[in-house]
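CORE FACILITY INTAKE
Project code: CF-77B
Contact: R.S. (postdoc)
Sample description: multi-component assembly, two entities in total
Requested service: structural model of the whole complex
Turnaround: standard
Below are the sequence entries exactly as provided by the requester. Do not edit them.
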Amino acid sequence: MAYIIQGDTGDWEIVIGLEVHAQVISKAKLFSGAATEFGAEPNTQVSFIDAGFPGMLPVINEICVEQAVRTGLGLKAKINLTSVFARKNYFYADLPQGYQISQYDQPIVGEGELILDLPDGGTRTVGIERLHLEQDAGKSIHDMHPSKSFIDLNRSGVALMEIVSKPDLRSPEEAGLYLTKLRSILRYLETCDGNMQEGSMRCDANVSVRPVGSTELRTRCEIKNVNSIRFVQQAIEYEARRHIDVYESGGEIRQETRLFDSVKGETRSMRSKEHAHDYRYFPDPDLLPLVIRQDFVDGIKAGLPELPDDKKARFMAEYGLNAYDSGVLVAEKASAEFFETVAKGRDSKMACNWVMGDFFAALNATAKTIEDPPVSAANLGQMIDLIKDGTLSGRLAKDVFALMVETGKAPAVLVEERGLRQVTDTGAIEAAVDAVIAANADKVAQVKDGKTTLLGWFTGQVMKATQGKANPAMVNEMLSKKILG
Amino acid sequence: MSLDKATVRAIAELARIEVKDEELDHLAGELSNILTFVEQLSEVNTDGVMPMTSVADITAPLRADVVTDGGYPEKVLANAPEAAEGFFTVPKVVE
């Protein structure tokens, strides 16, 4: 399923590396005691450190360190017991210090890996280059005044993890799968909420192209701050095409930072970042090297939750589900828990079908969340019990499920209230079958002439006559016996 | 090590320092002298020597994750050349 772009001179492939900025879940900022909560009044969560006042000294927040290590372990990465904070120097209105405290040649987390769950059920491993801790910048708001930008420093100094992939991704789709999986892992670990809309997870994409079969790495362009997975994919697609067009018309690609315009669906050069790659990093003299102990790392490791890959493997082994279904169910911890509650002590395949089918459809249709589901896991489980014990047919269950969504009532209550019990009484079914046969002598003749597909039509008629309550298997059996003998 | 005028111009730009053309020659000479002076350090063989970050053998102290600061926007904004509605305001910077 290689993703290949056909050009005028031949076939091209894309080389993509992603840099994700994930906001660390912590109460206070990386180097100050100011709060991190989203949506506060402007500049109310700012200490003198975050505002870059002279003489203020940063002190590292231990929970931010713990969160970075936890994320590193979740990515099966090497944890560096000694890491160094460095200053990345640049001027911008929302960066009051004139530099960002980041990590450069000695990050806290080294190489790791992330496994993509492909749509066909297969997997592909993507390398993680590094993860480092750094400060976020403030926020510029451009639409409050015709000639001014408004600066809010509440976000200034909030801890970010910059997670850098190796240039292992080969299509916009893989980039999307990478982001989806990374988001899922971060949410399992509770180190970042993964909310791209609020900006707590932001993505820069490094894109280059090369002729298929070549192993060179050509000049890349970096597309900054794309705020949804769909936009990342669009931006990559556009950028790759642009590179190919430039190469095929004899031009050269210049390494630069570009911006994605989601309205026009195109990328364009950010002129302000022309010199941006000259950051003049140097170790921050305000901060000693960060040294952590192996037993600190081991303690975090011992407390890791079951992560999506392990859970997926367990779902396949324990419940007999296929790779695709397992992957979908474990993407969110809450949906995995929901499924396990439904499946507990029941037919797991049936539980999977109901959760993945009608339940997810109802979730979408009602715009509810798995935390506040339209049908509780207990009720869905009870409904499956009613199918198993013959009270409900599959068809009746669909009606009952719709009523559960509508009323929130338990399935057993609805069955009683609405008289939706499946009819398994042979006499009643036989009467309905006889009536339908008697009323449709012409079609009976056609079936006898070999048009057996019409039997399905007869089943439908009998089900209709019994308001859907007849046991479909019994109806089928009786129909073929009576018509075909 | 000696710097040319173009490099000095680039450094000035990155540091947002305004430098007149007639100052460039002088600055290039001065900066080159400083670099040459510091370069003497490379005569010392430091193979296998870890960088010293402090004279005492101490590591970075850590802070508990507790909100202990903030909540004084008027102080944060007190020295701002321009502010409005609780924000700093600056000439529009937008791509």
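Facility notes:
- The mean pLDDT of chain B is 91.
- The beta strands of chain B are 62-63, 83-84, 87-91.
Invoice: internal transfer
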